[in-house]
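Structural prep section.
Before we set up the soaks we want a predicted structure of the protein with nicotinamide-adenine-dinucleotide in place, mainly to decide which crystallisation condition to try first. Input record follows.
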Amino acid sequence: MSVGSLLILPGDGIGPEVMAEVRRIIDWYGEKRGLTFDVSEDLVGGSAYDKHGVPLADETMAKAQEVDAVLLGAVGGPKYDDLDFSVKPERGLLRLRKEMDLFANLRPAQCFDALADFSSLKKDVIAGLDIMIVRELTSGIYFGEPRGIFTENNERVGVNTQRYTESEIDRVARSAFELAMKRGKKLCSMEKANVMESGILWREVVTEVAKDYPEVELSHMYADAGGMQLARWPKQFDVIVTDNLFGDLLSDVAAMLTGSLGMLPSASLGLPMANGRPKALYEPVHGSAPDIAGQGKANPIACILSFAMALRYSFDEGAEADRLEAAIETVLAQGKRTADLLGEEGVTPVSTTEMGDAILDALEASL
Ligand code: NAD
Ligand code: IPM
Ligand code: MN
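Run finished without errors. Recording the tokens verbatim:
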């Protein structure tokens, strides 16, 4: 019996390369754990533009609204740099997030023991690191109006608007508090209430929501100082909640703490559907990596870990998600490294597919 439906959108660049490894893992779960999914596949980003002239076809959007979970690889690439803004590959992803109303973007940054030496920070700063960034994903300066490039006083002006309603802040704050309750019961909210009214409101609303979670220790930080603290002593954090743009920046910083962008997964969650499961899209934090696309060098772990998040958050298969994460830990402990994780001289990198092979072997050994 199928445990649910999955729409796979490999996208562009290394997206299809890393997603091919996820497909093999999905097949393994079907064969060996009895977890079969109704899988369909479609186009997003530049690949959708090439076929349909838009980065996300309406039929694909409609399918995404119906499935239990969407898995996305990555979008974008230099081939599409000169396209009109309205049809750029990234707009396809933003449309999915907005129309599915995926307001809570969970970006965990965990340091695998085997990679504790690999970060550009000292080992004791990152060993054992396990933080969760909750980024607001459907509002803020990414979507606020007015926006555009206008002409004023004979010169052009580029405009974007940071805008948050109380209810938008309230719902993402609640998601973050709920996560904090299941983790270390610490939440740090980041904004710039010192210079932005939207930050003042953000701080007020988060403080109000905190009354419903008396067990969670809430702190506030200006987002710039938050970036500095992430680089100085990241283990002071448990859950961080922040807006769309700050969350984009801070999660790339957090990614590098753990070694490589190729390691960081994400879950974007919305409201519960009729079956009780949240609307959900899972994707690695990294992009289409045009510099290494087509060379078999991409690290598939971020995308595979994103599938592990799908098992946990959409399909209530936490134990199977743990199994997959443990298999990845095993493979890293064996010293297997894709090129992005190479620090030491004389270690030969494994390819994307070889990394997939090793993870499948470790899964097999876990039975
Ligand atoms: P990027 O994440 O694609 O690449 C940044 C660097 O990290 C590159 O050197 C790349 O080789 C490396 N890298 C990223 N993922 C890797 C992996 N899995 N394995 C090994 N190395 C990896 O970011 P960018 O270069 O700023 O953006 C390239 C394109 O991707 C742009 O069009 C951008 O808009 C898009 N993008 C898409 C997403 C997404 O689809 N969610 C996210 C970020 C960027
Ligand atoms: C991310 C990416 C996206 C963002 C782009 C590709 C739209 O950088 O998912 O972090 O800015 O949100
Ligand atoms: Mn980003």
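Observations: The pocket of manganese (II) ion (ligand 3) is lined by residues 248, 252 (CB under 6 Å).
Flagged for discussion at group meeting.
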